[in-house]
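[job 4471] stage=fold_predict status=RUNNING
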Amino acid sequence: MKKYIFIVLGLLLVVAKPSFSQDKTKSDTSAEQTTIPKEEKSVTHHSIVIDKKNINYTAIAGTINIKDKNDSVTASINYFAYILDDVKDPSQRPISFAYNGGPGSSSIWLHMGALGPKVVETTDAGYTPPPPYKTIDNAYSIIDKTDLVLIDPVGTGFSNAVGKKKNEDFWGVDADIQSISQFIKQYVSDNNRWNSPKFLIGESYGTTRSAGIVDYLQRNDNMAFNGVVLISTALDIESIFDLPGNERTFPFFLPTFTAVSWYHHLLPNQPKELQPLLDEARKFALGEYTVALMKGNDLSDSERNIIAEKLHNFTGLSTEYIMKSDLRIEESKYTQELLREHNEVVGRYDARFLGPVFDPLSEKAEYDPQEAAMFSAFTAAFLEYIHQELKFGMGKTYHIFGDISDWKWDHKEPIQGGQQLVVNTGVDLANAMIYNPNLKVLVLQGYYDLATPFLATEYTISHLKMDKKFQSNISIKYYEAGHMMYLHKPAHEKMKNDMDEFIDECYQK
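[job 4471] inference complete, writing structure tokens
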């Protein structure tokens, strides 16, 4: 199962993990305590123009030592904070905590692609040329609306376990939720922000994390939140991974296949408008297609032929291929098959991206062209930025990805106490919205995202275990882009406007 799940963020880099003696002698305990680092902080001052207004802000790059319930330090977590200058009353100023996903990713993508004051210029839906790369002011940063704290979980960035803990101790759904919750609580206390309006912003697995954190902090630490932003949602992991015996994913992916094939002009009857086509694809996916899959081997030959022909019309794949696939089209096979005759593979995170194939005869895609197209640019620009402008991290290794191959995917439901074998923190989000009826949720979803397809997101949101009246507190915004919709400039501008409106809605002065 794990080999499927770890496709979420692609290749993960190995993180060197500290080793500690298992001998529990008094001298060893003393030696362990010496490994606890001092908290670090680099403070610099900057300005930026957003929406024709000059914004003066302070950037803080640093670390916070989090503690367990016995006040023992367990980890050093690094962060990057952007705080508006000359605010008379911080309690009236919103603050947002943001992170990416993976699990095992640092916050570099939201930091330098979407939310922070600087972004790296990349080629939209194409390969960004080799260095030198260009970093520019982010006209769509949210720091004019909210103070921003970007967090790197344990094993990523400069964050590591300390004392008696190891990085592996934090590599699991529940341990991750608790450690990031501890960081947020510590940061809020250290900076006197308990009374500030609060938001969580997570992308991909970061949405899994956010749903757990908002419930954990509200019920365990009495820290209420105003809003949660879910970017490319992955609350119910089984809804987006075609694990053996899991039939749900095939209908959920179909409308995204339709959108991608439409974008590349590969549909048999290519319509001019995307939206009416997606409405038809949704209806077919949750209707005839789902019923056909549920019949299994009881599906008649005539029914099978009808479904195969309709899948051909919605995907552009040949009926022969669809029949050989037993009507079940896997994402990694679709990205390889769609443009096979052109020797091109389709991007997973953003299917607008195309790349040459390694092996034209391969059954599945062997890499993601979107990653190849822009990961190097992000890495180089980010490291130069934090070293040169933020004056932080020189001489240390920043881990863009962490080696979390032993991630624990089970999750204990917070109220009912049931043990989920594969996490679905939609349960946690529903609990949080019931516990805090004023909590609002903004969902941002790309049409060309083959990692977290939009129909799976719609299904998850409509199946939260809570009274229907709470649904009005959830809104979904769509973008003609991929998983990282902010890489597409028009989508980034729309994302900025959508988030600004959401923050205003959640926080009325």
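[job 4471] summary: The chain has a mean pLDDT of 92.
[job 4471] exit 0
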